[in-house]
UniProtKB/TrEMBL annotation:
The lineage of its organism: Eukaryota, Metazoa, Cnidaria, Hydrozoa, Hydroidolina. Residues 123-178 are annotated as: Disordered. The keyword Oxidoreductase does not apply. Residues 155-167 have a biased composition (Basic and acidic residues). One of its GO terms (molecular function) is RNA binding. Keywords: Cytoplasm, DNA-binding, Nucleus, RNA-binding, rRNA processing. Monomer and homodimer. Pfam families: Sas10_Utp3. This is Nuclear nucleic acid-binding protein C1D. GO terms for biological process: maturation of 5.8S rRNA; regulation of gene expression. Plays a role in the recruitment of the exosome to pre-rRNA to mediate the 3'-5' end processing of the 5.8S rRNA. Residues 123-136 have a biased composition (Polar residues). Residues 168-178 have a biased composition (Basic residues). Belongs to the C1D family.
Amino acid sequence: MANEQLPSSINKKFEELDESLTDLQTSLKPFLKIPVTDIREKVKDPLENAKLDLMVAYTANSLFWTYLITQGIDPKTHPIKDELLRIKQYMGKIKLAEEKKTMARVDTSAAKRFVRNALWTPSSEDANSTEKSNTDPAPEYKQTNRKDKKYKKRKNEDRNDKDTNNKDKKKKKKKKKE
């Protein structure tokens, strides 16, 4: 009886809305059977729990927005608009937290070691001339000990390699001349 009073284009829209709501209901049924506490127990990450809460809140508020429209109420003037904006702001905060979580972290102790080993203390002659030229002397840094056994060994190996290479080059030059 009510269908006869409405134009066919509006009836078609109502049928499409009814079909969409039925599809939504069937897709949400499995999730509505599971208690939220069970889902929370399975999710250990607090960030994921926050995302779950926001998803539920956003979905509920969006459905309420749709309900207001069907009742002829302008949702743009209703407090639901502010609630949806608040939820979107929290979504942005979670996105920032996720980015911070995946951001590369600096190993500060390793960085300190790199800096400490890269810096050197000037010799006593250089230090005296620096102090005379500057009223505020530079901070003292611990000089790395380059006279350890490994360094000497590497240095000697490098010298031996260079000597061997030079000898080989000289032999090749002699052969070419002959």
